[in-house]
Amino acid sequence: xxxxxxxxxxxxxxxxxxxxxxxxxxxxxxxxxxxxxxxxxxxxxxxxxxxxxxxxxxxxxxxxxxxxxxxxxxxxxxxxxxxxxxxxxxxxxxxxxxxxxxxx
Length: 104
Prior knowledge:
This protein is mainly α. The chain has one domain. The chain has 5 helices and 2 strands. Strands 1-2 form a two-stranded antiparallel ribbon. The protein is elongated. Its main location: plastid. It is found in: Plastid, Chloroplast. Pfam families: Chloroa_b-bind. Keywords: Chloroplast, Plastid.
């Protein structure tokens, strides 16, 4: 999934374009100034990386059983993200078995 998102993150700005405005108004860095691919690592300001890392840590901490996340993590099942895709989600055991075995 991460690889798919990385590919889309590389392709989408080439096809659709980049966001208008500034990535960092105080440093004068606009979204157009940031190249695609690994070259973008050096162009993103340090506070931007701090925000990205803080959000990743928040997401990882939400999967653990401590503090604020204790009650939510205790009730969660592995792989259950709480999203039921329309027309695909079902509670019928026979349909689930058929779908799971369809690729075998």
